[in-house]
Structure formats: C-alpha cells, structure tokens
Amino acid sequence: MKLHYFLIFGLLAGAACAQSNWGNWRGPSMNGSSTEKNLPTKFSKEENIKWSVKMPGPSGASPAVWGDSVFVTSANEETEELTGHCFDRASGKVKWTKVLGKGFRSDNRSNYASPSPATDGNVVLFFFGTGELSALSMDGEILWQKNLQKDYGSFYFLWTFSTSPLLVDGNVVMQVLQRDEPVHKHQKGGAKQDSYLVAFDAKTGKEVWKVARPSDAVSESREAFSTPIVHEHEGRREILVAGGDCLTGHDPKTGKEIWRWGTWNKERIPHWRHVTTPVAGGGVVLACAPKKSPIYAVKLGLNGTVGDKEALRWVSEDRAVSTDVSTPVFYDGYFYVLHSDVRTISCVSPDGMVIWTEELDTRAKFEASPVAGDGKIYLTNFHGEVFVIKAGTKYELLHRTKLGEGKDQLNRATPAISQGNIFIRNEDRLWCLGK
Hints:
By secondary structure, the protein is mainly β. The chain has helices at residues 148-152, 308-311, and strands spanning 49-54, 64-66, 69-76, 81-88, 94-102, 118-119, 123-127, 132-137, 142-147, 166-168, 171-176, 196-201, 207-212, 229-233, 236-243, 246-250, 257-261, 279-281, 284-288, 295-299, 304-306, 312-315, 329-331, 334-339, 344-348, 354-359, 371-373, 376-380, 385-390, 397-402, 416-418, 421-425, 429-433. The strands form eight sheets. A five-stranded mixed β-sheet has the order 14-15-16-17-21. It has a four-stranded antiparallel β-sheet with strand order 1-33-32-31, with no helix packed on it. The protein has a four-stranded antiparallel β-sheet with strand order 2-3-4-5, with no helix packed on it.
C-alpha cells in the first residue's frame, strides 16, 4: 500500500487549481502541505524576493492567500488597533485595511493577533484573542461581526486565546476549549463555563449549531490553543479537535461527537495546556502531548469512546520525536515533526518508524510550524531564520538565511505557500518569496 494514497483531502477541492490557494493556516489539505512546484530553494533579503511590506505591528498569524489576495492581521501597540489587511499577491500593494477590534495584549507572551485568517474565496474571516470575529467580503466590506465573549461568556484562559477559524461547507467553526472556572482577577465572580464548538453561517453570521465539548482535564490542562481541522477517511468527513487531554472527531453538519480518545495525561497533570493542532495522514491522526511528552498516533475511522488498545497505532519512544508548540506537517507519505524546544526535526512514517532525526544548529526557539511543497520543508524560528530542508528519507539542509531583524523578536507566524510563492510574516514585515 502506498502511503501517499491517504492524502485524499485535496480531492475534496474538486479541481487541481484549488491547491494553488492557501485558505487557512494549515493549507489546502489541512496538513501543512502543498502540491506546488517550482518553489524557491535559495533566497535572502536581496535574492528571490518579489516584494516585502512593513506591517503596523506584530502578529503570530499565518497569511491566508486566495487568488490575487493575501490576508494578514496585525496588533498595533501604539494605537491598540487590531487590523485585517489585504495585499495584492503580485505586487504587495495594499488593497484594503480594516480596524476590526481594540487592544494589544493581555500577557507578555503574545498578542491578540495570533489567530490566522481563513478564506474560501467568498468570505474572509478574522478572529482575535479578544473574542472579535469578523466576516468580510473579498473586497473588504464588513458582512457581520460578533464577539464570542459577549455572546457566550468570558474566556477562561491563563494565556491569550489564539485558535483560528475553520471554514467548512459554508460555515465558520470556532473551537473554545477553556477552563470551567475563572482564572484571572477580572473574571472572578463569573459563572462556570463549558468548553464548546460553535458554527456560524459564513455569509450571515447566524448560529448553525453549538455543542459542548466536555473534558476530564483539570486547571490549565483544560486550555487548548489548537485549531480544528477537517479530514476525510474512507468516505467519512469529520472535524478533528485536540485539547483538554483528549482527541475527538465531530460531524461537520451538526457538531455531534462521533468518537473520543484520551488521554495523553493519565496523571491529570494540571499545567499541560495544549497548543498543537491535530494532523492526519496515512490512516492516523497525531495528537502531540505537551511538555516534551510523546506523540500518539490514533487510528482514524473510530466510533464512540475508545481506549488505548482500540485507538492507538503507536506512541513515540524517541525523546526527540515530540513537540510542544509546532504542529507537524504530513507530506508525500511522511510526517515531519519539529521539536519546538530542543530544535530537532524528525521524519516519521505513518506506522511510527523514525526515518531520521537531525539537530538544527540554532539557539533560537521554534514556535511556527513547518510547511512543505516541491520536495522541501520550510521552517522559521523566533529570530526570523528560515531553514529549507529536503523532504524524503535522507536529511539534507538545502538553505538557511535570515529575514528577521534581531534577536529580540519573537517570530511565531507559520509560512504559507501559494502560486509559486512562499509568504513569511515576521514581527514587522510580510515577505513574498519567489523565483
């Protein structure tokens, strides 16, 4: 059986041209990969740069690209404006900018502009850690806005909430996996809260469905900063959700839970907040336990509440095959796991065989996730260094350069791949790379 046959989600797009768009932070197949060819291998601030533009403030959000438009967000510390931007893909010229919220940050680790925008070519969605959710036309007209905290209660998170919108079947799905009790002083006196998934009609903002997403996790381990994805396996499409010490699959039409596996936290450690998004391929979905713990490969096609014996295909034993923040990419039959803390990258087959593990010679931490296309893996670290690695069964570092401006920067945004270009969002600049 050839493993790449499992890369079936891209078929849902119907036409190959849809693969040239990058409508959400994990790309057209929702696994960090692209079918693009002729992507640049070598580049610098002077070589293979089509354009770059100065941004009004930092953001941890990945660009979304559709047709001739590139969408990004910013948080401006001076004006405390949260903005959505649209640039022309070919030239980098500003098409429009909209102020969509107020604020900058609530902690010193990130800012409110960490969620990535999402688009299906009809609407573009911007979400911010304040709870502001805005739907705009491709021309920048505001179609509707709502604030999830005002409509469904205050967010109970220790850190700034940063899940990204998921567009599926004309709906926008939001995931709020949070504590059940207040955590900050300004939340004291608030009522108990459920974790939940909620779907809105992308054109009107009308609620389509809302379901509770219960959890046995405690304290901070109830918090998840992951993003749901859609995956199809053997004809069944489902929304995959990781967080709250468990992994679940849901019906996209109703939000109803189809199956549940957990846990990677058998001791119910209270400080294991979850960051990584699930990634599926080769008949499994990876749940990456936090804090240098293993990766769990869960079989797809499950039903009901299942235990380890029924659910698990494998659990990583190599300590290097782990990740706390960076979501793995599935590309051409292999998972590529970037260990965000110890700065290693591993190539792993869907049956759990570690093909190779290599150290990345840098002191800067990785929190952006890897992306892949044209036989290459692209990574970027806190300082804006970009690594290009050959995909496949033999490790090779093809290129390394620096697009960031200094060691004090915290570049967290994951690159995007579209129409022969790579889009990289630093703290202060958006770059378009291309031959």
